[in-house]
Amino acid sequence: MKTAFRRLLIKLSGGQLAGENGFGISPAVISRIAREIREVHEMGSQLCIVIGGGNVIRGIDAAEQGLDRTSADYMGMLASIINALALQDALEKEGLATRVLSALEIQSVAEPYIRRRAVRHLEKGRVVVFAGGTGNPYFTTDTAAVLRAAEVDAEIILMAKQGVDGVYDSDPKTNPNAKRYDRLSYDEAIAKNLRVMDQTALALCRENNLPIIVFDMSTAGNIRRVAGGEEVGTRVGG
Fold first, then answer.
1. Domain of 142, in residue numbers
2. How many domains does the chain have?
3. What confidence score (pLDDT) does residue 65 get?
4. Whole-angstrom distance, CA of residue 22 vs CA of residue 85
5. Distance, CA of 214 to CA of 161 (rounded, Å)
6. What's phi and psi for 205, nearest 5 deg?
7. Which of 33, 176, 188, 227 has the fewest CB atoms within 10 Å, counting from its CB?
């Protein structure tokens, strides 16, 4: 199978790395994710990844519990850097040259984010993991994913979900009659508040005509099918 996209960005949540524990990093889970990413890379795609930090701390949740919002968001950015380093290790064990580029400068463990440097890494066939969100509080890693995808001219964003195979009109876990969408426009997703990603990120996708595919990462081989152009999950825009 050959790739349908020359350059794509994968958005992973930190919670996906935790596995059944719900916290921390599961070596078995991160190894499986790395293997599937390697399969996509072997199809010929240039790959970049944005990863969240929710398996360590979610800034918005910590803020709701009384922590200063700005401090909580910076803690979340640091958590995403921890996850990026773990993912880099797993990808390198799969034989993939990987670079972590961080919006927060921590030069002992990651390169600072520079757009031209990121593009050059991609052109050389390296996997690039963007860490530290946007580097600013009050912005989610969804927004960071769209921003980085636009900056490096990615053709599409793959929103990897855990146990949810697309976008529904209501929560399928609580409503057995929830309807899954095969395709959505940006305007529909925003107007109906369908939680594809946060509204700021969706608006940025619309402004840059950057399509999104929402799919279930927990189904083995799905990421390869999406990268190959198969109709999997829900496509938003494009």
1. 7-236
2. 1
3. 86
4. 19
5. 7
6. -60, -45
7. 176
**Phi, psi (5° rounding) for residue 102?**
-110, 140
2 lies in some domain: no
- Whether 74 is covered by a domain: the verdict is yes
Burial of 76 (0-12, 13-18, 19+ CB in 10 A): buried
Residues with Cβ within 8 Å of 25's Cβ and at least 6 positions away in sequence, in order, are: 17, 18, 55, 83, 86
β-pairing, 46-51 vs 127-131, is parallel
> How far apart, in whole angstroms, are the C-alpha atoms of residue 8 and residue 11?
10
Q: How many residues does the chain have?
A: 238
Is the pLDDT confidence value at 59 over 80?
no
Cα–Cα dist 158/105, whole Å: 26
Antiparallel, parallel or unpaired: β 212-216 and 234-236: antiparallel
Phi, psi of 120 (to 5 degrees): -65, -40
Strand partners, 108: none
Position 114 in a domain:
yes
Helices (H), 94-221: 115-123, 141-151, 186-191, 199-207
Of 201, 164, 165, 173, the residue nearest 186 (C-alpha): 201
Nearest to 103 by CA among 59, 73, 64: 73
Element spanning 89, H or E: helix 69-93
Contact between 117 and 88 under an 8 Å Cβ cutoff? The reply is no
In tens, the pLDDT along 83-125 reads 999 999 999 999 999 999 999 999 999 999 999 999 999 999 9
- How far, rounded to the nearest angstrom, does the alpha carbon of residue 212 sit from its chain's CA centroid? 11
SS3 219: coil
pLDDT in tens, 134-167: 999 999 999 999 999 999 999 999 999 988 899 9
